[in-house]
Design brief:
The structure holds two protein chains of two kinds. By secondary structure, chain A is of the alpha+beta class. Chain B is built from seven helices and 26 strands. The chains are: A alpha+beta, B alpha+beta.
């Protein structure tokens, strides 16, 4: 058998197999081209889930008439020129393969006009046929139309799902891109029905509307905005509070330099940051953007660029983990979602109505003051009695979003007479604490809240002391593979630090001679196995810490006040003050919420007041 | 079938037998007890399918022989609630059980007696006679060291070993400490050269033995076999299945004899440990023990950085200058079980276990492993 060079159309089909898996992949490639061309408005039209046609129209730079035919050729691109460009890719695409791959499995019509040209040109291509170029009427920008996808790849066509499923995938692509390019307007039409109309979102208010359309109202109302820089990296975005964690990992958007990715490293960093705060097997919701020097990340690791490689993986992991953890842990009652949601993103109708009321007192209002008025109308109705100190509080309530960096010491700046969780009024059935704050009613699950307070305190105390080791009278033995054995030997000192004295007793037998004293009742063999698995996989492990946390959580749970325990008012107030000081006090150790805020306006609705 | 029994005669055996019956209803018959009438004797049997306890009491008025079952818990509660001195009349007819006493009358559920499960016994390999109080002591001195729901299932019980010389040893360990007690029996007839017999008695059976023979100086017959362990007294028979497994070789884990030892007053040491244990971490109660000339210094610390310190006088010692950490609970449980005013502690270094025992050398011996604090 001799070796032949494959004809280019076959090579292209093979390449297409990698890049174009389903109609959604075509949409992704075309959208990325439009974005790379600097488009401000992109219109996507889909026919029959993309099986009939896909049309992407943009108002970007366009393609020079002489390059039109070349654009469909393989390895032809305007995005990189030299080898060094590959190490610092700033555009979404760069390989010059997408259009060529698509053209090898579908009919492609591409029209384009550059601003300085007088006519628009159109190129049509069919696999195995010569492209023809003709003039056409077209505004500045490009339109790419794909029809008869996979017409010459029956195998792929057979594996496509129903029209609706394929369209759902396209919708996912649009959503992912829409959330990372707020400066670009996007429309999506399916079978002539407008699905998404997302205007350019330059202001925060418009961004909120876009997020609400895609991620839902619950997310915008229960998320914190974060932004932080460190060691040349910037992490920003919105972090869903543990309260709205989902049963599926379907609301997780992570972007590296505006490119949507699904990365194991990133996922585990986020998961760890949410540790201790999620209810059972829930998944956090987030939209996060990581920006760093393109040189420090390799995007050329996966055909569809869904995975990336970080040059300093550990650093990125630590950065993401520490920033998110800090943001979550520092979410105090004063910074809670109601405040953020209402003051940060006021619905347009509310400020208008309120500003009219305010005009009675004063004419000029800075933007920030206008915003917080959405907090509740009731305050406005009591306006005549509004004491001066209240104005200070209200302006403070604006601060949390004005200073979005989680490092901002919000609480210490605040001079307020009413604490965020208010003062206790009484106890309901000896289970819940009812408290009154400036916004209305707070209901606290006292066991859950006390549990978290104790748990955080125990964790702090625990961190300050070293682990005690119980020497075993009957050492435990376990069989391991040689690879695992090497791993244990390499990490011997680390394991000793965890109070685990593990020695080898043969090429594949380990002996455990001492274990952490507080974990003697756990299944040590299982723990050691899990620990080795972690060490092999990630070079690090927090199995012992995790078990320790479970153990501390049980201690906290047992020590916390139980339901049907009578508390007096000073005791309740003391608990509320403790909660305000405690990390993650919005959730108990198991992720259940510890308190709920009911604003006066919400209560008013119940009684149809003021309608 | 009908019989009458006085409340007082029934109450104690019924309470013991009902205690063995299963409390959670997975198999309904296990929450019932079997009542058998035979030659003017009433035999009560309760089982959880691992341990079976039978009590015998003589009757004055009984009609024909036969057997039936009755709900263990309810019957016991009824007997307890009835006024003292009452007689209780049981009638079992047409699958119905009626219990009458004074003006009270109960109709209780009953299941077919032939479905009641018995633990199969075979011919015993070995039969020995022991004094009840001595057997009781063997288990009392060791039971607390048994593991509780350990994955090494064979540790969730106590080892009963009969050596060729007729010596009985009971050993219990949870992997961190070990308790051993021994007693010389006189009636063993193991032939020359046969190895000793080892049976692992499950935790529940050990607890039942402790409840069963609390008082009395009677002689018990023990039946040792591969599959079961049986104790018979005049009024009771306890049969338990054994834990199928190989018990670790306890001789290997008992530290080698060391020249270094000290003796001290048991109660003083106990009191001191109880006292300083207040200032320890809730979970594992670690304490530092410093062996100095003439004194034993005990130091504890907790996560809140509080500290406690107490000294106990040493009576006699062959070595000093050692600091070693322990779980206070392990030391205290061992000291509680030592039945003598003075305790001898044998030690070697900070990495190896110590042995606690009475200065007389009688009773239990306790190995406790150190803790690195």
């Amino acid at each position: 058998m001799r070796i032949n060079l494959l004809p280019s159309h076959i090579a292209n089909q093979i390449a297409a197999g990698e890049v174009v898996e389903r109609p959604a992949s075509v949409v992704k490639e075309l959208l990325e081209n439009s974005l790379d061309a600097g488009a401000r408005l992109i219109q996507v039209e889909i026919g029959k889930g993309g099986l009939q046609f896909i049309r992407v129209k943009d108002n970007g730079r366009g393609i020079h008439p002489d390059d039109l035919a070349l654009a469909l050729a393989r390895h032809a691109t305007s995005k990189i020129k030299t080898e060094t460009d590959l190490t610092q890719i700033k555009s979404l695409g760069f390989r010059g393969e997408a259009l060529a791959s698509i053209a090898s499995i579908a009919r492609v019509t591409m029209s384009s006009k550059q601003a300085d040209q007088t006519t628009a040109w159109c190129v049509q291509s069919q696999p195995n046929e010569q492209e023809s170029i003709r003039p056409i009427a077209h505004p500045n920008g490009s339109t790419v139309e794909i029809s008869d996808l996979f017409f010459n790849v029956p195998a792929r066509r057979k594996f496509l799902k129903t029209e609706n499923t394929e369209f759902r995938h396209i919708q996912d692509v649009i959503e992912r891109i829409a959330l990372s390019h707020f400066d670009v307007g996007l429309t999506l039409t399916h079978n002539q029905r407008l699905i998404y109309d997302l205007p350019e979102a330059s202001t925060e208010e418009k961004q909120r509307q876009r997020i609400e359309k895609i991620a839902g109202e619950a997310f915008v109302e229960n998320s914190i905005k974060i932004e932080s820089h460190a060691s040349g990296m910037r992490l920003s975005g919105w972090l869903g509070l543990p309260t709205i964690a989902r049963s599926q990992a379907d609301l997780q958007f992570f972007y590296v330099n505006q490119r949507a990715i699904k990365d194991k490293l990133v996922n585990s960093a986020v998961k760890r940051a949410y540790q201790d705060a999620l209810y059972q097997d829930r998944f956090p919701a987030f939209i996060l953007f990581l920006e760093l020097d393109p040189e420090r990340v390799d995007v050329n690791a996966h055909p569809t660029k869904q995975e990336v490689r970080f040059r300093e993986g550990r650093l990125v992991y630590d950065f993401i983990f520490s920033q998110l953890r800090r943001a979550l842990h520092e979410t105090r009652p004063s910074l809670d979602h109601h405040q953020v949601s209402i003051s940060d993103w006021v619905k347009p109708s509310v400020p208008l109505q309120l500003s009219e009321r305010w005009q009675v007192k004063e004419d000029v209002k800075p933007y920030t003051e206008r915003v917080w008025e959405g907090v509740n109308q009731v305050l406005a109705t009591q306006q005549t009695e509004m004491p001066l100190s209240l104005r200070e509080e209200l302006s403070f309530s604006v601060k949390p979003f004005a200073v979005t960096a989680p490092s901002a010491p919000v609480l210490s700046e605040v001079k307020t007479s009413i604490p965020p969780l208010g003062y206790a009024i009484g106890q309901l059935q000896h289970i819940y604490i009812l408290a009154e704050n400036e916004k209305g009613l707070v209901i606290v699950d006292m066991h859950a809240a006390h549990e978290r307070v104790l748990y955080e305190r125990l964790k702090k105390a625990w961190e300050t002391q070293s682990l005690s080791a119980q020497t075993l009278l009957l050492p435990l033995t376990l069989k391991v593979s040689e690879k695992e054995m090497q791993c244990v030997q390499a990490h011997h000192a680390f394991l000793m630090g965890l109070a685990l004295d593990i020695e080898s007793a043969g090429p594949t037998v380990l002996i455990v001679r001492s274990v952490p004293a507080h974990l003697i009742e756990t299944n040590i063999v299982q723990l050691v196995r899990d620990l080795i698995a972690d060490l092999l996989e990630n070079q690090c492990t927090d199995q012992v810490q995790e078990k320790t946390r479970t153990f501390l959580a049980t201690l906290a749970c047992r020590a916390a006040v139980h339901a049907h325990h009578k508390l007096n008012i000073p005791q309740m107030n003391a608990l509320l003050r403790e909660m305000e000081k405690t990390d993650l006090s919005g959730q108990c150790n198991h992720g259940r919420p510890t308190y709920r805020q009911f604003t006066l306006s919400e209560l008013d609705k119940l009684f149809l007041r003021g309608q | 079938m009908k019989f009458i029994v006085s409340r007082e005669a029934l109450l104690k055996p019924l309470a013991l037998v009902a205690g063995v019956a299963e409390k959670r209803h997975t198999l309904p018959i296990l929450s019932q007890i079997l009542i058998t009438l035979k030659n003017q004797t009433c035999i009560l049997t309760g089982t959880d399918s691992e341990v079976e306890l039978t009590a015998r009491l003589a009757l004055e008025h009984a009609t024909e022989d036969g057997c039936f079952t009755a709900p263990a818990r309810k019957l016991l509660d009824i007997c307890r609630a009835l006024p003292e001195g009452n007689d209780i009349e049981f009638t079992h007819e047409n699958q119905r059980l009626t219990v009458k006493s004074g003006k009270a009358r109960f109709n209780l559920s009953t299941l077919p007696a032939h479905e009641f499960p018995h633990i199969e016994t075979t011919e015993a390999d070995q039969q020995i006679q022991v004094n009840a109080a001595q057997l009781q002591a063997l288990f009392k001195q060791t039971h607390f060291a048994m593991a509780l729901q350990d994955v090494r299932y064979f540790l969730n019980g106590a080892l009963f070993e009969l050596s060729q010389s007729g010596e009985i040893k009971v050993v219990a360990t949870d992997g961190h400490r070990l308790a051993l007690s021994q007693h010389l029996s006189t009636t063993s007839n193991l032939s020359e050269g046969t190895p000793s017999i080892q049976s692992i008695i499950p935790r529940k059976a050990v607890m039942e033995i402790l409840r069963l023979f609390q008082e009395g100086d009677e002689t018990l017959t023990l039946h040792l076999a591969k599959q079961f362990f049986k104790i018979t007294s005049a009024d009771y028979t306890l049969i338990t299945k054994l834990i199928d497994g190989r018990y670790p070789d306890y001789r290997k884990v008992i530290p080698r004899p060391s020249e270094k030892f000290l003796t001290t007053d048991r109660e003083q040491l106990q009191q001191a440990l109880n006292c300083i244990a207040v200032v320890t971490s809730e979970k594992y109660r670690g304490a530092r023990v410093q062996i100095c000339p003439q004194t034993l210094k005990l130091v504890t610390k907790n996560p809140e950085q509080e500290e406690a310190e107490q000294e106990v006088a040493i009576h006699e010692q062959t070595a000093d200058n050692l600091e070693i950490g322990f779980n206070v609970s392990y030391l205290l449980e061992a000291l509680n079980a030592i039945d003598h005013t003075h305790v001898k502690i044998t030690f070697s270094d900070a990495d190896n276990g110590i042995i606690l025992e009475s200065t007389e050398g009688k009773g239990g011996r306790y190995v406790v492993m150190p803790m690195r604090l």
